[in-house]
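Hi support team,

I submitted a single chain yesterday and got back a structure, but I'm not sure I'm reading the token output correctly. Could someone confirm the output below corresponds to the sequence I sent? I've pasted both exactly as they appear in my results page.

Thanks,
R.
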Amino acid sequence: MRYEAVIGLEVHAQLLTRTKAFCACPTTYGAPPNTQVCPVCLGLPGALPVLNGEAVRLAVRTALALSCTIRRHSRFARKNYFYPDLPKGYQISQYDEPFSDGGHLEIEVDGKTRKIGITRVHMEEDAGKSQHLGRTSVVDLNRSGVPLVEIVGEPDLRGAAEAAEYLRTLRDVLVFVGVNDGNLEEGSFRCDANVSVRPVGEAKLGTRVELKNINSFRFVEKAIDHEIVRQAGVLDAGGRVVQETRGWNEDEGKSFSMRSKEEAQDYRYFPDPDLPPLVLDESFVHEVRARMPELPRAKRQRFAGEMGLSAYAAQVLTGHPRVAAFFEEAAALHGNPTRVANFVQSEVLRDVHTRGLVAEIPVSAAQVASLLKLVDRGTISGKQAKEVYGKLVGTDRSPEDVVASVGMQQVTDAGAIEAICARLIESSPKQAADLRAGKTNLLGFFVGQVMKETKGSANPQLVNEALKKLLGLPG
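Hi R., thanks for writing in. Yes, this is the structure output for that exact sequence:
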């Protein structure tokens, strides 16, 4: 505890456009290597870039979602560095004149809300991808020129768990506003972490080390924790932390040095002469702002405040935008959001499969609403509803049709239910005596026995009333 960690994250998020940032090549993931390229994204002499308007729209939406100020004038720059997967020898990015700056992101840490600063959001293009096969390396340039936003966070984070929560919250925001699919495995959401340590109480920042391109939240947390311990060990041994870029080896559970960390001057930024300044007029920004979807934090607050859901249920049901929309539709059709939320969480979500912005939900919102209305009317019991749901999965059948086809109905004959209860009480005299003596939890035992006897078809309210009457318990 002698040292305090100071962490700032840089996130590269791929914008969900059909074509690349400065040419018409597609951005389809998984295409055969080097098949989605042209003279522009290959950097061939004489090829000129043309800015993708949809990429600009999505970038502005990103910045607005993070409460950034949109600059009317910005400029693209050339960031010069030489890697095998950067064919032009420079990357088109933004440097001293980004299109937005001065935002923030609110995160929940230990039940408290923290506001983490966003230095800027700027646009740039992606590089290609190198793959290393033993002593051989190959390059796939399909990704070269794919549009990105870089979200540069302030060094406001103080621990690995905070950093992981920041990334989860940020990914949720980008997915809910429809600008990114949040897929870490495919590289469309990537994180670089700048980590330094300093003695507790010290205001001056320590020497920062960049952890590069870590592709899971769990790995980010582990890598940052490891780096904090490593730097503290260097300082305790009387050494000096070297500014560098390090990678993360998950198999060995440790970081490794990749190269010395470049400074801004090493990239020799200068305005790109092939691209005019980017001018965003107020009407364009207003249009983007007017079409902004509801952010996940606001949606959770509405689910809890207006619909009466628990904080946990609101969190679960806003885990994916399609799930949230499904729940809202079902709740509107049924009329009781809490009832719908409980059923969606307990039954539907286990069958939901998500990938990026896609969510495969095996039933419709109308089917769920109709099914729960059958329970409300006493046509079937809650247990029977689960059986009917199983027969609805993957079909377009109505719950009413399923119930009719199997002859399912709830037992609502009070006399028949009372007779079953009387017989079960008689066969369990010890439990009945203990219940009468004050062991009230045994009421659940008898309810369960009745439900077992009736295969879940007995009306639960009538069962409780009959048991209390026969056992002489207060109603």
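A quick pointer for reading it: The longest helix spans residues 217-236. Let us know if anything else looks off.

Best,
Support desk
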